[in-house]
Amino acid sequence: MTLTLNGVDAPRGPRTVTDRNLTRLAGLEPGTPAHAALRNEIVEDNLNLVAHACNRYTHRVDLREDLRQVAAIGLIKAVDGYRPGHGAAFLSYAIPTIAGELKRYFRDHTWAVHARRGEQELYLRLVRARDDLSARLGREPDFGELAAALGMDEKEVRVGLEVGAALRTDSLDAPLGGNDPTATTGHDLRGAPDPALDLVLNRETLRPLIAELDDRDRRILKLRFWDDLTQAEIGTTLGLSQMHVSRLLTRAFTTLREGMLATT
């Protein structure tokens, strides 16, 4: 028979040896060799709780050893914090303590990009519910089914699961074809030339070149490109013919173009 606490299954049955040792431990002076030896013995006798706590995370092969160590720390904290005769039995105290240690580890150390605590907890809750529904349905549930099971809005479910993108990040230098070093990398698929950067460069290059033009040419350029006047309107404003304005603009453009080419 098993006992489920905080989503973790643990064996239930006689625990007389652990209970007896915990009572003995409470009567020993912390820091003494006798206390340390008995404490270690209790931890070793209950390492099966560590294995059971880690069972639900078997898909995280990359974290297997880290999770075992974190769960073991949780077990040690449970042994140190448990008080025989006060409240629940040791098993009911130890399982939540170990599970809490694992949750804190996932919250604080496994997110590649920072997410708020509430967002992290929502994501983990959604993942647990999705796993449970998948086991019952024999397939992965859709957003609507997951929302109905948790009494949530479907949009909230979508946003909550999207937070999972912050869990891991992939190197842009990693080949997308696995171990093939000639395969396309993330750099090849992300980003593109930004025309705005060329515009900034051209603008800064033109600034001193325009300053070198005479007053009339600078005014014509302002009327054409700042005030958006036609050549005929510029001619009326300056008392020039449209053809004369066209020749002055062409001369100014040539001067500026030659100046830009000379700076590259």
Account of the 3D structure:
Mean pLDDT is 81; it is low at 1-14. The chain has 13 helices and two strands, in the order ββααααααααααααα. It has helices spanning 16-26, 33-45, 47-54, 64-81, 90-109, 117-137, 143-150, 154-162, 186-189, 195-211, 215-226, 231-238, 242-263, and strands at 2-5, 8-11. The chain is mostly helical and 264 residues long. The chain is elongated and about 110 Å long. 65% of the residues lie in helices and 3% in strands. The N and C termini lie far apart (80 Å). The chain has three domains: 2-109, Orthogonal Bundle (Rna Polymerase Sigma Factor, Chain: A); 117-166, Arc Repressor Mutant, subunit A (Orthogonal Bundle), CATH 1.10.10; 195-263, Winged helix-like DNA-binding domain superfamily/Winged helix DNA-binding domain (Arc Repressor Mutant, subunit A), CATH 1.10.10.10. The longest helix is centred in the C-terminal third of the chain and has 22 residues, at 242-263. The protein has a two-stranded antiparallel ribbon with strand order 1-2.
Question: Which descriptors apply to this entry?
Answer:
two-stranded antiparallel sheet; 264 residues; Rna Polymerase Sigma Factor, Chain: A; 13 helices; disordered N terminus; 3 domains; elongated; mainly alpha; Arc Repressor Mutant, subunit A
* Shape label: elongated
Mean pLDDT: 81
Number of helices: 13
- DSSP strand (E) fraction? under 5%
Overall tally of domains: 3
CATH-level-4 superfamily name of the largest domain:
RNA polymerase sigma factor, region 2, helix turn helix motif
Query: Under the CATH scheme, which class of the largest domain?
Result: Mainly Alpha
Low-confidence stretches: 1-14
Helix percentage range: 55-70%
Intertermini distance: 80 Å
Strand order of the largest sheet: 1-2
Rg calculated over all Cα atoms: 35 Å
Element string (H = helix, E = strand):
EEHHHHHHHHHHHHH
| CATH fold topology of the largest domain | Rna Polymerase Sigma Factor, Chain: A
